Amino acid sequence: MLKVRQQPFKTAVLALVWGWLLVLVLAPNLLVVGTSVLTRDAGSFIALPVNLDSYRRLLDPLYLDVFLHSLYMASVTTLCCLLIGYPFAWALSRLTKPRQTLLIFLLIVPFWTNSLVRTYALKLLLATNGLINNALIGLGLIDEPLQMLYTEGAVIVGLVYLLLPFMILPLYSVFEDLRRELLMASHDLGAGKLPTFIHVVVPLTLPGVIAGVMLVLLPAMGLFFVADILGGSRNLLVGNVIKNQFLDARDWPFGAAASILLTVAMAVLLLAHKLSERRLGNGESKP
Amino acid sequence: MNRWLPRAYLSIVYALLYLPILVLVVFSFNSSRTGYRWGGLSLQWYESLFNNHAMVQAMWNSLWLALAAATVSTLIGALTALALHRYRFRGKRVLNGMLFVVMMSPEIVLAISLLALFLLIGLQLGFVSLLLAHVTFCLPFVVITVMARLSGFDERLPEAARDLGASDFTMTRTVLIPVIMPALLAGWLLGFTLSLDDVVVSTFVSGPSYEILPLRIYSMVRVGLKPEVNALGTLLLVFSLVMLMLSQWILTRSKR
């Protein structure tokens, strides 16, 4: 029989955490939703009346182009990360345990290193008189330096470089859980390599794929400094638009609406992740 | 299945991941001013880095901020993890969900929402606003680190302490805290690094009164090339490596 007694410690801890989350997470997000339906004001950033103009302006061809281009770059980034990361995670999960530990360590070292500095390092490689061009000219493969910096490709390379570990880690964890007996069973039942891959491996690793997509696709639309350093003025991300609206153009309602676009994208991806786990029936058994 | 093909593939990807970092480190010792050609060994960029007062000030500011943010988020995060682990309470799933959403949501969404809040309540943008923001995005990572440690923990220990008459507070102090200590240190180091590295959130919630390192670097690398950044990047790399090895060492040693 449990004794009913006062638990001042429990109350204090819960009050602290709830207080922090309500004040610094929930309230600010509600503020952003509120801001998005107000009108721009020169003096105090926002003013009445309430309207949906900001959302209408998201469909303005000028911004729609930027959003679609950003979504395109983020999608290509995600696809590249998946194509590189899937075989990578699979190969990693087949190594001996000590090797895996070492290689995972090597994978997260860059993640612990300043992302701005790493983006800048790419600039050293990609610039017109940078190392790649110098090497190619030195080898006599090209005569004129290639324009690599300030292109769409440079932004995508930068995003893939920064975000690849975020794709690999969730994939690695599903591959680690993938039981070899299942593959053997499929083989024993007469399935070839390709059917086994499509009907066994892909469904079982799908939650990892979706988690990876979520961890790559959303930041790939938000990391404005990558577009700033590597992309020039024509390759903007949604993050650049939000930043400009808040810090330069001072059109808060529009910036807020653009940010809600990202939040909605996140909600959709979270839902997809939950559904894929539920379909496998391990959503509850795994912590 | 072929053995060398997967290994060759892993090696190529690692080589590509480390190539830019290697270039950065090598060029930090380059004496040439143009930045793209090798002109011989030199420590001049390190020298000019430390002679730059604004830069050194930004370094100290970042360091203090990271220390404070890591400490506060570890405290709150550890208490949260303990509460989630031990207690049943209303809204537990909601609390878990909120932490998860904070971790998943794009940094820029968090950044503008906090900026809106700080301006609404009239908080001067500077150390305090940066601290509140950094603690908020570090919190879920600390909670996860500590929860992972708690999930493999013998439940009979706290029960025994309670049966022997220890209050919740005493039990936490004498039984739980020693058990989760390695996770606390690892979480602290992670928070420290996340804070030191953050660009996106800091861009929005910092003011002119408190300039921090990532923003200083950002304004330097936006236009052209600055060889000092190579030197600074190399220092940061060495620093993070030491921190990461420290945290791995703490975690593996505690498993024995």
From TrEMBL, chain A:
Transmembrane portions of the chain: 12-31, 66-89, 101-121, 154-175, 196-227, 252-272
NCBIfam families: PRK09497.1
Keywords, comma-separated and alphabetical: Cell membrane, Membrane, Transmembrane, Transmembrane helix, Transport
Protein source organism: Marinobacter profundi
Record-annotated ABC transmembrane type-1 domain positions: 67-273
Membrane topology per record: Multi-pass membrane protein
Family to which the UniProt record says this protein belongs: Belongs to the binding-protein-dependent transport system permease family. CysTW subfamily.
Pfam families hit by this protein: BPD_transp_1
Signal peptide span: none
Subcellular localization, as worded in the UniProt entry: Cell membrane
Protein name (record): Spermidine/putrescine ABC transporter permease PotB
A Gene Ontology term for the protein's cellular component: plasma membrane
PANTHER family xrefs: INNER MEMBRANE ABC TRANSPORTER PERMEASE PROTEIN YDCU-RELATED, INNER MEMBRANE ABC TRANSPORTER PERMEASE PROTEIN YDCU-RELATED-RELATED
Highest taxon listed in the record's lineage: Bacteria
SUPFAM superfamilies given in the database record: MetI-like
Chief localisation class: membrane
GO BP, sorted A to Z: transmembrane transport
From TrEMBL, chain B:
Keyword set, alphabetical order: Cell inner membrane, Cell membrane, Membrane, Transmembrane, Transmembrane helix, Transport
Domain of life: Bacteria
GO cellular component, one term: plasma membrane
Bilayer-crossing regions: 12-29, 63-85, 97-121, 127-148, 175-196, 229-251
InterPro entries in the cross-refs: Bact_Polyamine_Transport, MetI-like, MetI-like_sf
Main location: membrane
Residues annotated as domain ABC transmembrane type-1: 59-247
GO biological process: transmembrane transport
Homology family: Belongs to the binding-protein-dependent transport system permease family. CysTW subfamily.
Known role: Required for the activity of the bacterial periplasmic transport system of putrescine and spermidine.
PANTHER family: PUTRESCINE TRANSPORT SYSTEM PERMEASE PROTEIN POTI, SPERMIDINE_PUTRESCINE TRANSPORT SYSTEM PERMEASE PROTEIN POTC
Name the UniProt record assigns to this protein: Spermidine/putrescine transport system permease protein PotC
